[in-house]
Amino acid sequence: MISKNPVFLFSVLLILISGCSTKRESLGSDNEIIVIASIEDEEDIRNVLEKIFSDTLYTPEPEPFYKIKFVSPKGFNNLKRQTNLAVASIGDNLLNPGTNLVKNLLGKDNYERTIDGSEHFIFTEDQFAKGQLFMILSGQSKDDIIQDIRGKEEWVRSRFNENFNRKQKKYLFDQMRRKDVEEDFMKKYQWSINIPWGWEIIQEKPDSNWVWLGREMPYQWVSVHWEEGLTAPDSLIAAEVGWNFPQKFYGHIRYHPYEFNIQQTSFLRWAGWRITGIWESEQEAQGGPFISYIIFDGVTDRTYHINLLIFYPGNDKSIFLRQLDLIAHSFHVRNE
Q1: What is the average pLDDT value for the chain, to the nearest integer?
Q2: What InterPro entries would the database entry show (predicted)?
């Protein structure tokens, strides 16, 4: 399997710096990448990493999915168990503490391969801690590293996204859930969804086929609406259904044309539509990002609309919207 990976792995790196002791869990935020590098290399390394981590959420201000934070090489030992960790340097000047750290981690021969060869990007997992993603970036120039990364961006992003999802699912679902509510929904409506502890039913309207769940601080809302049969067969109808949804069900909420977008998507085992954009209140100065999924399920012969909203003024929202997305992706119907 490793031989198929588009990213070069130094097996000797594992021998040099892993050890055989049992590793503890990684630390830190799942949406932060800690980069150990000298200040003189920071701009170039940031440019390199932005080639990989370019996903942005509009809240309406643009917000990256992964925050890149630079730390001096002298902080390496204190931060080596971080969930997402990179060590990076440009050039072969060993007076540069970042370069010196890279050489010490790789050993002389492997370090020289990053300077004189074509292998400038190293990626490993569980290097210093369980659940850790670890990268080394090293080359004579920024362009050398970018050239080595080209074509591997999607694979690297997928590894980070999978790690984020695994850790966040554990946080959301592994401890305590509202299983009583989940079971009740399945009995009454033939569908259910994983509901984290602390979430409440805000509104439940069986006559309207609509359930609204949420929690406070940050305000995270998930609602599910369903209709019999296939009611959104194409993008135009799905966009109209999505656009009218908040005023029909929430009453005082509408979508803004800014960044309103609909795309065909795969949602779990269903094909459907993914709608994203910005919501705003008609009564107060409130708003934030939203996601909607519209899918048709042949088992229950229904069209489902799963809507996600967040309100968290003045704070980063991307990690909380991604949590909502994980909750949405726990959706299931009877006989699954």
Answers
A1: 91
A2: DUF4837
- What pLDDT score was predicted for residue 217? 87
DSSP secondary-structure letter at 151? Answer: T
Domain boundaries, given as residue ranges, for the chain? 2-171, 175-333
In angstroms, rounded to a whole number, what is the distance separating the alpha carbons of residues 294 and 265?
Answer: 9
Task: Please report, in angstroms and rounded to a whole number, the separation of the first and last CA atoms in the chain.
Answer: 30
Whole-prediction pTM: 0.88
Q: How far apart are CA 262 and CA 23, in angstroms?
A: 43
Residue 3 has pLDDT above 60, yes or no: no
How many helices (H) and strands (E) are present in the chain, helices listed first? Answer: 10, 16
Dump pLDDT digits (tens) for 309-326: 999 988 889 999 999 999
Give pLDDT, residue 178: 95
Cα 75 to Cα 34, 66, 85, 172: the distances in Å are: 11, 21, 12, 31
Q: Are 178 and 195 in contact (CB under 8 A)?
A: yes
pLDDT of residue 10: 47
According to CATH, the topology of domain 175-333 is: Protein Transport Mog1p; Chain A (3.40.1000)
Distance CA 241, CA 20 (A): 56
What is the spatial distance between Cα 114 and Cα 121, in angstroms, rounded to a whole number? 8
d(CA 6, CA 245): 43
